[in-house]
Amino acid sequence: MIDRHSPKFREYLELYEGAPLLELGSMADHVRRALHPGDVVTYIVDRNINYTNVCVADCKFCAFYRRPKHDEGYVLSFEEIGQKIDEAKELGAVQILIQGGHNPYIPFEWYLDLMRYIKQHHPIHIHGFSPSEVDFFSSRFRTSAEDVIRQLQAAGLDSIPGGGGEILVQEIRDRVARKKAGADRWLEIMETAHRLGMKTSVSMMYGLGETLADRIEHLMRVREAQARTGGFTAFIAWPLQPEHTEMEGTPKTDAVTYLRTMAIARIILDNVPNLQASWVTMGLKIGQIALRFGCNDFGSLMIEENVVSAAGTTHRASLGEMRRHIRDAGFTPARRRQDYSIIELERGSVEGAVRTVGAAGFSGAEAAARTA
Ligand code: SF4
């Protein structure tokens, strides 16, 4: 449990609330440069495949899901998923992000068969099934979360995304997503995955009516979990997109809040190697500024994105535009794999990129082992 009266908590909260914007950014930039001293900013090409939109979790902030028996509910076939992977690979994708609703009609064997099918017919890194889905499978199929992860891993799952983290304070989750894995459970599943050798990312969706102190608690809980397992490779945050959801009308947070949030995250999470700029929700210009507020990664060129776009907010860019925005912000773009190892540095060779990353304290091999 996080002690909200501890000196560290108060120090973080005071910084988040009161430090002048550019001072906060500069402190975060200092942490980022200590971890990543070169001028490289990474990005990945991947495809987000939402295998089903049928869901019984009823999250108030979600515009993507459909209740069972709704006319617009779908489950993709293996062939459709395979075709999406092939299209993505042609465009240079090195991973798929596969997530879906809590669909009560899909048997567990379907997920295992899907993993095997992908690995056999369309091999690619599979980043999939957030802790909320793992928790749903665990209760639906009456087995432990550890067993769920073990079986998915054995069938081909490579890493787990940080979806469904929202705010890791139970009171907030009870208000907006009470049927989903609670805060303790979400972190427990992440730590279980780490102990099974799986790397994961970690996220925060803010603007749900939480206080700044709630956000600090979220970040400190992630920091503590990371100190125990070391399994988080990257942190990503984005604000609530309330359009077309039950929370429509909730005031949207602004760009300054986003920049302050990324900066305080970089300061608190100095044990999580990578911070992604969320330009899909914030736009490319704010994404560029975020690179001076602690972020070292420009996220992904998402070939398909259904969840944020269902809520009406999505920024799109070509690969060329993404690279140009990274360059214009004063950095060298580098295409990466899911483990943050470099595939292609825009200027220079792959060996050069590994040297640059190595200067951050992670050699190419270490980076592959430590990050995802
Ligand atoms: S966010 Fe995920 S779990 Fe929640 S309603 Fe939407 S699809 Fe379901």
Tell me about this structure.
With 372 residues, the chain is an alpha/beta fold. It has one domain (7-370): Alpha-Beta Barrel (TIM Barrel), CATH 3.20.20. The chain is built from 16 helices and nine strands. The protein has helices spanning 7-18, 21-35, 78-90, 108-121, 131-140, 145-155, 170-176, 183-195, 212-229, 255-268, 279-282, 284-290, 307-310, 319-328, 350-358, 364-370, and strands at residues 40-50, 95-99, 125-128, 200-206, 232-239, 274-276, 297-302, 332-336, 342-345. Strands 1, 2, 3, 7, 8 and 9 form a six-stranded mixed beta sheet that branches. Strands 4-5-6 form a three-stranded parallel beta sheet. Strand 8 and strand 9 (342-345) form a beta hairpin. Helix 1 (7-18) packs across helix 9 and helix 5 (131-140) packs across helix 8 (183-195). The chain starts with 6 loop residues before the first helix and ends with a helix. Bound molecules: iron/sulfur cluster. The site of iron/sulfur cluster has 11 residues, from loops.
CATH superfamily: Aldolase class I
User: How many structurally independent domains?
Assistant: 1
The H/E string reads HHEHEHEHHHHEHEHEHHEHHEEHH
Multimerization state? single chain
